[in-house]
Structure formats: structure tokens, C-alpha cells
Amino acid sequence: MTPSTTSTPTGRRTRTTRRAAPRRRLLPVTLLLLVALLAGCSGGDASDAAVPTQGGTVDAGLSEVRAPSAEAGGTLRVVTSQIDSLDPQRSYLTGVWNLMRLYVRTLVTYSSEPGRTDQLVPDLATDLGTTPDGGRTWTFTLREGVAFEGGRPITSQDVRYGIERSFASEVIVGGPRYVLDLLDDPALPYAGPYDAESQEGGGLASVSTPDDRTITFTLTTPTPDFPYVLALPSSSPVPAESDTRGDYGLDPVSSGPYAITSVDDETGIVLDRNEAWDPATDDVRTALPDQVVVRTGMSGLDRDQALLAGSADLDLSGTGVQVATTNRVDGDGDLLDRIDDVTTGAMRMLALPTTVAPMDDANCRAAVSAVVDRSAVQDQLDGAGNAVRTSVLWPRALTGGPEDTDPAPDLDAARASLAACGRPDGFSTVLAVADVPMAVDVAAEVSAQLAQVGIAAEVRPLDAASFYATEIGDPATVAANGYGVVLATYTADFPTPASFLVPLVDGRSIRTPGNTDYASLADPGVNGLVDAARAAPDPAAQTAAWAQVAQAAADTHAYVPLAENRVQLLAGQRLRNGVVMQGYGGYDVATAGVGTD
Predict the structure, then answer these.
(1) Distance in angstroms (rounded) separating the CA atoms of residues 565 and 28
(2) Which candidate, 60, 68, 102, 76, places its Cα nearest to that of 596?
């Protein structure tokens, strides 16, 4: 997801491989939140528990359904900041992925059951796939009776073609790149369905479709998380005869309960019912409204005002309400009754690049780690309502992680570590940060903390638009500029430990622009534990093994976790069947209805 230049940038990134252009990334204000992980919180103290409220019933959409209703009809009115593309293979905004649940179906998708929306369920497929070899080969069978708008049956070849589109230069700009890494042959790169030579070779060889309902994927490496890749809209079916290449987003063909019927700057995006959708084939979507209208290009305060005034039912952006709205909500029981408090999975952290002296010495990194005062950082992030302290490389909603002890700063331990790394009087370094106000404020706070033990960290604000792609995402640039400390925000693409940890700590990542191993960590012990976690035989063993990876990475002091972002979602007055969609950071449009009385 080219980053937007709104307030706080995110570090949510995935390794860029052969393609020259790094993939687009999102900022938390426009993205949020490739995983809005909620329950199972661990660590922290009372100040990190649920934000205190006075009266009202908050969090009704987290573990249950907010305002449950089976009433059909009416128009669901949706607001958002931006739509990057309506083409499922091109979008990298999670709010748009939420919207696509209305007109895009995939082999598997996220559950719409409250409290389980970070878990996968079958969608076009009959099950979650089978793999006989630990995740190297995956086979899926399509349901009977699924169809595109217009009534043409959806086949396995349509799923394959949709995935093949992601390899085309006209399409890949902006979209996810997982399939490029997992399904392409480096010795014979596939150039997409518009390339004559690639098509003469029979298309994407790693995907086979022996019949209309069977599809098999052969990956370049065993990947237990592969079904999460198939849950992305970019893995959805596209009918080849309707593909208009780079213009496909102007009129995408629906496989869901709604179809896009109008796109207008003034009236917004209009979706009407797709009569070819058969609810008997769909266990996820309720399709209650007769119509859905999306207004785009709205500021945060404008979106909040629309929700407060009743002219909007839900906000797709996933950023939560603005500070001014939070202040208005405080003490208002009626408004508190419409709030869901969500930790987002977006973690702020310090990365200490091991390729930059003196951070190439673990003791010098340990000194930085010992100095950090997370409570003061939390204050800079506007307090517990907007950030939850964390000292572990593990999103709060993922159970089974290392214990979060929430340690206080220890200046004596920091000085001892400085002496051990031969720098008893401290040292000078550069603290790189995206040039947005809150991030710069946090960087200034961290710099002041480090100064207490003689570490002089020059705060260097860098262009927010290129910060992740070409500044801290390019190891050569980091080393050349001496960025010894990097303040980054990072969000995993999927709600799994592997998705969070591997891009950060696997030292075998390709060192190219777009890299997410911001600390350039290349620890053989950590890499070995990654391999062991991937080979673990069952879910319980996998979780335990990934927890060992997280702890081993923490012991290197290459990363210093600081805080996880928190937002408050506001439900519109008419919203019915409101379920917080953990992966997309908002209310699930697949189940949302409206009160028509």
C-alpha cells in the first residue's frame, strides 16, 4: 500500500522482490489497519485497560452484535477518506477491502461472527483448503452455484485469472505482492495475462485448474499462512472477457451481493443488489440494505460530524474518531453507547539497525532499550486513549505471546550496557523519523530520554511519503546516512504471529528498497527459530514456537517496542447488525444494516 501524506505513517510493509517499484503502503490515517486485533490483551498496567467511561454500553460490536436486526431494506450510508482503487487486484487500503466484501468474493474470507473476525472461513470454496506437504501445495474446491453478476458461473479458471492479473505491470501498481513471491518461478518470471510470451507458456505454471471447480497452488516455499493471502481481494476471480486491464476498477464485475452501478464525485459510489448472488452459497454476507452509498474525500472531522448527525452510518477509514469528537463523547452516555474501543495492531517501535555503528554492538542496543520510558512516550501519543504501552514484539490480540512486563526505565542498567560496549560516556547517532507532528514529538521525547545517559540522538525528520519505501526501507540508505535509531510504525498484513514477525526479524529478507527488516537483523539463532516455527506440527506448537522467535528477537535489542495504537469507532445512529471487523478496523459492511423506522 505509494504512502499517503496524511498524519502518522505506518510501517506496514512487505518485502519487495524482483519488481522495480516498491509496492504502495498505507499510513495509519489512510490504512489502518491491516490487522485491527482486539481481544486477548496481555501486559501493561491498569492505565492500559479499557478506557474509563461514565455510563453507557461501550464495545457492543466487539464480542457481540451491535443493535442486532434482520430487517432488510433502506440505504446504508458510508463515509471514508479515500478510495485508492475499486479494482480488487489494485487496492491496498483496508477500508476499501472492507467495502469489497460487498462485491468481491474469494476462496476464503474473514468471519463475520463477533469476536472471530480475525479468523478465516470458507467463501467461494467449500473449506479452508488442504495441504499434504506442510503448506507447499494447497488445493481448494469451489462451491456449486456461485456466479458473477449476469449469471455466468464462477470457475477455478476465473480465480486463476484474477491472480494472474496481479503480475501485470498495468495492475500491480499499488496492490499486494504476496502471490508474486509465492507463485512465481524466479528462473522464468511470469509477466501476467497480457504478455503474449507468458500466455504462450500456458499462463502461471504454479496454479493448476484440472476442472472448473478445482484449483491447486504450488508455492515457492511452504507457507501455512497462504489461505490469508487468498482472503485478500487481490485473489478474487475476474472474468477474462470483462477485463479492461488498468481500467477494470471503473466497472469491476461483482461476485458478491452488490454491484457497483455508479461512481460520481458528487453523489458518491453507489452499489445496488446483484440479482445473480445466491444467499444459499454465502455464509458470510447478510446483504440487508437495498443500496449502499459511499461518500469519499471527507476529512476526519467531517466524517465524525456525519456520524454524529445521523447522515452517515459507518466510517470505512478505520482511523476512529478525532480528538475533538473524543472530547465530545466523554461524559455523554448516549454517545458512549455507540463507541467501540479498538486496539489496532499498529505498533510503534524503535529499530536499531545492526549495520550502523555503534548499534552493531548488542550492548549499545541494550543501553537504548533500558533507557526508554514508555509512559512518557504514551503521553506524547495523547495518552492511554490513543496508545497502549507494549514491550513485546507481539500484537495484543494474538494470544500466547511473551509476557509483557512493561518495564520502567533503568538508567543504571543502561550505563552498564554502555560500559560493556566500550562507550561509557555515551555516543552520537541519528534518530530517523517521518516528518509528521506526532511522530516528531515522540522522537524528541526519546532523544531527551537517551540524553540522560550521554546518548546524543539527533532527531532527523524525513519526508513522510518516501520514509518507508526509500529511507528506512532501503538498508543501503540507512547505513549511508548513519541512522542508528529509527522510529517506525509497523502493522502485520495478517492476524498471525508469522505475518507480524517474519518481515521484521528474518535476516534472510532480500535487502532491497521496500524492506521491512528495519533493524537489518541477521541473527542465525533467530532465523533457526523461524524455521522451527514454520515446521511446528499443530497450532499450539506453532504459537509456542513463534513466541520463542519473538523473545529471541527481543533479546537482540534490535527492536524496542513502544506502544500499540488505539482508536474509538463511532456507530451511526441507524446502524444495525454492527460487528467490528478486526482485520479492517471498522464495522463489517458484509453484515451491516440500517434502521428504517
Answers:
(1) 9
(2) 76
pLDDT in tens, 279-315: 999 999 999 999 999 999 999 999 999 999 999 999 9
Element (H, E) at 367: helix 362-371
Measured between alpha carbons, how far is 272 from 250 in angstroms, rounded to an integer? 15
How far is 14 from 16, CA to CA, in rounded Å? 6
Strand partners, 293: 77, 270
Give the whole-angstrom CA distance, residue 389 versus residue 564: 6
269: which 3 cell numbers? Answer: 459510489
Q: All 3 cell numbers of residue 563?
A: 506502544
Q: In whole angstroms, give the CA distance from residue 549 to residue 499.
A: 12
CA distance 409 to 452: 11
In eight-state DSSP terms, residue 281 is G
Write out the three cell numbers for 565.
Answer: 495504537
* 3-class DSSP assignment, residue 468: helix
Cβ atoms 366, 323 nearer than 8 A: no
Cα distance between residue 572 and residue 575, in whole Å:
5
- Is 583:93 a contact under the CB 8 Å cutoff? no
Select from 80, 120, 114 the least CA-distant residue to 98.
80
Q: Record the cell numbers describing residue 473, joined without a space.
A: 526501507
The sign one gets for the Cα dihedral 114, 234, 86, 500 is positive
**Residue 208 corresponds to which cell in the numbers above?**
493448476
Supply the pTM of this predicted model: 0.83
3-state secondary structure 324-366: HHHHHHCCCHHHHCCEEEEEEEEEEEEECCCCCCCCCCHHHHH
Residue 474 to residue 219: CA distance in whole angstroms = 27
Taking Cα atoms as reference points, which of 69, 68, 92 lies closest to residue 82?
Answer: 92
For the stretch 28-52, pLDDT in tens is: 333 333 333 333 333 334 344 433 3
Q: What region, left, alpha or beta, does residue 426 occupy, with left being phi > 0 and alpha being psi -120 to 50 degrees?
A: left
